[in-house]
Amino acid sequence: MAKKRIGILTSGGDCPGLNATIRGVVKACYERMGEDNVEIVGISNGYYGLIHGLCRTMQPSEFSGILTQGGTILGTKRQPFKMMTVIGEDNVDKVKNMKETYKKERLDCLLTLGGNGTHKTSALLADEGLNVIGLPKTIDNDLFGTDVTFGFHTAVDIATDVLDRLHTTAASHSRIIVCEIMGNKAGWLTLYAGIAGGADIILLPEIPYDIDSVCSAVVKRAQKGKAFSILAVAEGVFDTKTAKLKKKEREAYRAENGNDTARIAAQIEKNTGIEARVCVPGHMLRGGTPSAYDRLLATQFGVHAAKLIAEEKFGRTVAYVDGKVTANKLADIAGKKKLVDPKGQEVQTARDLGISFGD
Ligand code: F6P
Known about the structure:
The protein is α/β, with parallel strands linked by helices. The protein folds into 2 domains: 4-150 and 290-333, Rossmann fold (3-Layer(aba) Sandwich); 155-286, Phosphofructokinase domain (Rossmann fold, 3-Layer(aba) Sandwich), CATH 3.40.50.460. The protein contains 13 helices and 11 strands. The strands form 2 sheets. Strands 3-2-1-4-5-10-11 form a 7-stranded mixed sheet, sandwiched between helices. Strands 7-8-6-9 form a 4-stranded parallel sheet, sandwiched between helices. α1 (18-33) packs parallel to α11 (292-310). The N and C termini lie far apart (63 Å). The model has no long low-confidence stretch (mean pLDDT 97). Bound molecules: 6-O-phosphono-beta-D-fructofuranose. 6-O-phosphono-beta-D-fructofuranose (F6P) is lined by residues 13, 78, 115, 138-140, 182-184, 235, 286.
């Protein structure tokens, strides 16, 4: 019997849980098909490696001891989807190369671990006839069709810890601290960490803020004797004026002026007279070991991917929907984003606590 050759790549920003997912799928494949009947082909640095043929057959021992390891043993790289079908100055036909690598490596299927951009390319490769299975990774939790992505909850834990620590220093100095939290254009990470970390004001890209409302929330707290305030601010926030601009104009504004965080802090200090500081944990939110929740989720996702491989159900991506691990068709989810619903339960929970969204 010919061995099954399974290619694996991790693409886009790294996050905790990538290695746990790789381990889950590989162990489950060995278990189902027998270690001697499976060959795992590791593709380095995401689609870049698939384009340039950076592949090697991996040994079973390489998947031991990686459950708790952050980052990705395969390496990763951003390879923007909108450039995938464009032949650039290097004259490389990326789609053609990826198909050739798949063929040359005699792959029976390709597993792609990534977020939105990764899934768009996965759908394209599935359209081109490759057997692709996606696995939903991102700290942003903005992948359509799944309630949760692996990496998200670890990042929530880290961001919550940051907010906890900011509380003691902000309270000691009677200061405002504005904490910028990653998440790209989605506010999930800021919303979850903001609630869990007891933020007083939460600003999300999905709810444009008005700086006067933000300042009045700070003043209201001060009048109640609470001399400090913690703001959890998503990196992608816009004020109500900027939010009215066309998408292209808004992006140009962002490229020219950077994120709003420092401006929000400066404006609060100016308007309220209370000293303000900025904290940007940045990539710390993506580093280190996955939480127990993410280890479990990643393992469940990996095991489900192995089942899809065995059943030859390709052109899909693993998902978590209503408490169950399942799969979506890549074509149904690629190119769609899952954003926070401003009228959803989590936002309402926060509002019911008196948390301001600056609107
Ligand atoms: O998609 C994950 C993410 O961490 C976003 O939250 C953030 O906007 C972006 O990646 C940062 O990208 P990079 O790692 O390229 O700096």
